[in-house]
Amino acid sequence: MHNTLDFPDLLRLIDERSTAFRAAVAAAPSLDVQVPTCPEWTLFDLVRHLGEGRRAWAATIAAGPDATVKSAPRGDPGAPRERAAMLAWLAASTQELLDALRAAGPDRGCWTWWGKSQSPRTCGAVARHQVQEIAVHTYDAQLTIGAPQPLPDEVALDGVDEFLSTICTTTVAWPHEPAAVDYHATEGRSWRNWVSDDGARAARLPTAGTTPATAAGEDPDVADASARGTANELVLAFYGRIPLDSLKLDGNRHLFDQLVAWDPER
């Protein structure tokens, strides 16, 4: 898959989306309000998740390429309840992550949970996924205060590609009939996801209406199902923030139910 953002861009976007997240938290009338897209969490729970998660990733990156498990953050006092202290703790969490990424560089190996996917197990791939996680949780926080904003275009377009390559590819066999599913962003980019006994793989289509190189026996022209929307809508649907039906779905819609239900690690 094609990463449309270079490493400095990824670091910039981690910082920018983290700043937007803190702005939403600062504007909230209460930290005890329920997050609509994470109904089991209050806004304080979301803050704690984001901050502790960035510190854990910083520790994992710092542990080096030979680490075999995700590291726990060291000496982390946890998220304070007082608003100003909480925002400072959040900013420090982001800084720990950025410092660890800059020190490691994009090409150094890193433990990741996506070992069977197409995404590399590198610090650059970690940075790329962090952009998406922080951006989606920023949307959650903005929605909680009644001011949701779409993901920035550069985040959303790379987010479709990143989700498909990291979340939707595996070497674990697909338990249903082989299929091909296309995803079309109205901004002019398209991707294909193949699922079969060999697992799942994805590729970006060079231009709308054309297809990448296919494996033997695959029809190069016809997808079994497709979904179309803006890149922002595709990413939010991928992460369950908006209904899949809010996209334009064509072909075998049952395939999407099978994809959502499939957990290759189970």
Number of strands: 7
Spatial strand sequence of the major β-sheet = 5-4-3-6-7
* Rg estimate, integer Å: 19 Å
Helix tally? 7
How far apart are the termini? 25 Å
Largest sheet: 5 strands, mixed
How would you characterize the overall build of this protein?
It is a single chain. This protein is an alpha+beta fold and 266 residues long. It contains seven helices and seven strands, in the order H-E-E-H-H-H-H-E-E-E-E-H-E-H. It has a five-stranded mixed β-sheet. Strands 1-2 form a two-stranded antiparallel ribbon. Strand 1 (34-35) and strand 2 (38-42) form a beta hairpin. Helix 1 (7-27) packs parallel to helix 4 (123-144). The radius of gyration is 19 Å and the shape is globular. The model is unreliable at 213-217 (pLDDT under 50).
Any descriptors?
single chain; 266 residues; alpha+beta; five-stranded mixed sheet; two-stranded antiparallel ribbon; globular
List the helices and strands and how they pair.
Layout: H1 7-27, E1 34-35, E2 38-42, H2 43-62, H3 83-104, H4 123-144, H5 153-166, E3 179-185, E4 189-196, E5 199-205, E6 225-229, H6 231-238, E7 248-251, H7 254-261
Parallel strand pairs: 3-6
Antiparallel strand pairs: 1-2, 3-4, 4-5, 6-7
Helix pairs in contact: 1-3, 1-4, 2-3, 2-4, 4-5, 5-6
Question: Can you describe this structure in just a few lines?
Answer:
The chain is an alpha+beta fold.
